[in-house]
User: What shape does this take?
Amino acid sequence: MMARLYDRWWSNFIQWSIIIVPLLFSLWLAGWFLEVPCPTVITSNPTEINDLQAELNICEASQMVFALGALVIGIMMSMSFSAEGSQAIIKGARRLYQGGVNASGRWVSRQIRDVGGSTLYKDVTPEKAKGVTSSVGKPIKTVLQLPGIKQLVAPIRKGYGAGKETYQQEWKKVKGYDNYSPTALLQALNYTSNSKERAKITDLLVNKHPDKFNEHVDKLKTDDKANGTKKFEKFAKEMNARSITMPGSEKSVLEIRPDIAKQLGKDIGEVIAKATEKSMRNWSPGVLKDPGIVDELIKQDKFTKSFVADIGKDIEKTKALEAGISAAYGLVGGAVEDVIKRRTGSSFANNISTSPNIAALLKTARKKDIGEEIREALDSAKSGGTDKDTDKDKNKDS
Amino acid sequence: MRGILNPKNIFNEKAPVARTVLIVAVVLIAGTLMLMPEPANAGFFEDVATAVFEFFFRIVMAFLIAVVVILAAIVNLLLIFVAWIARMFMEFFLELTLTHTYTSGTIFDVGWPVMRDLANMSLVIVFVAIGVGTMLNLQTINKRMLGRFFVVALLINFTPIITGIIIDLSNIAGYVFWESAKRSSSALINSNPFGGFDYLGDVFGDIIAVLGSIFSADISEAIAILVKAVVSILINLFLIFVYLLLSLLLFGRTLMLTILVILSPIAFIGLIFKR
Assistant: This one.
């Protein structure tokens, strides 16, 4: 109610302030009409005098009618114009105000963070994806794709597309977050509901602080499991909406979190195929737990030696991979830890030593055309680990 | 009758003698009238009657027109007077709205401090509400409002400056047209061919012209004067309406801005709750 009171006050204030301008302009315009010169009677001929007098009357009458018309139209327009003008000004002012509020909000969040109030914020991830939009948009899209209509609307679409493209890239121009710490970025992500700012913050988190971002997403998943919330679903929905409104902004997120591919309607195989080893190293343990992803990784021969070694350095990731393989293929007995140790590095072997079933899991994976490196490792395990590669690795390890 | 009722026997029915005689008589009379030659000249009495009728018709018409013109002149005199007063009002309110000091003066000095104190008292309540809202984790009132709260607490004391700047900006834009607008408002009355004071002199001339037309064969001049009188009334009425509308708007602006400036501290409290 109070907010509405302010809006009404502001609207009235602006309207009554600026109404004077169009009013006085209409008065000036009326005066301009009156200043148009009329014919002067300079003759002594009675007939001519009569004719000129009639002309003079018509001229003066026309001046008067035009002047009054301009005045009335001006008054009417000023009343409607000032209302619209005030609306436009209010909209502009609102935008400025929102910017100011966001800035002050960021300042307050920084202050609270500095005094250790980071946990006070609640997750306010907005719901963006609406089924209604797609259900309305799809038929229109189909009609626009029809031959003839497509050519007809092409220039409009081109113009619209240019504007759309500009809008789609606007999130990259968002400033003010570049020097934020990961904690501040996460807090800002929880605080702001502006989609462009959220896209920028997410991008910064993914590229600069992937571990923190992974922690955040994993926490969402954990909370969902523990409390029955739908935070991860919301996050995936937001990414999906962003992939439509700001295509490209979700790519970096998808690279680091391929587990949202399904929610984004993407093929997990394609996502894994595009994943580079650099991006895979930034994956969280939560991703490696996903049996679908593990299966694709093995199928696409993505378990390179260096990648496996990298996983081996992290006990969490190793355990997650074990869980992922276990979920994908089921547990079978057996042990190849020694081979793995020689083949992929000591740390990985040390980590998997806590997992007695890993050998059996890899054995099962072999049957499903697993990665070259692991296949070689398994082969060398069979032959007693005497091949050249194994010797090289031994030397490396030593 | 049977024969007539039956279409087949309609020509077999024998016509009565009386009817036959009547039809023949009608045809003969009509034929005689149609074939009878017209007279070449109107009769003397007819000419006299027509001339008398036209004379009286002109007198009546001229008399009526003269009455209407005299009435129109009287009405116009009144309307000119009203328009002149309306113009004075308009110019007065125009000057008032552009020169009035909205952020100082007796009314402001009485009203604004009261509203500011009320707003400051409300701030205390809002501050407590924010604290309680934060404790209870309310969505509508919580610590996120703190930033705006402090900004508003500061701005409340500067509302005369903020509102004064906006009003001054619009007034400066208005001053651009002020002088010419004042000239226009006077010109609307002075150059009104049907409503200026010059018209008073014309009115007597018009009445004489109308009375003169009583004795002339041409009443077109009288009708022209009649049209002019009616148009003058309409235009003057319109002019009065425009002047009064402008006066009302300009007075409304002065009044509303004065009230809105006084109420501004309370309105700014609403800014805290804006999303």
Notes: Confidence is low (pLDDT under 50) at residues 116-136, 331-337, 339-344, 384-398 of chain A. Chain A is about 75% helix and 0% strand.
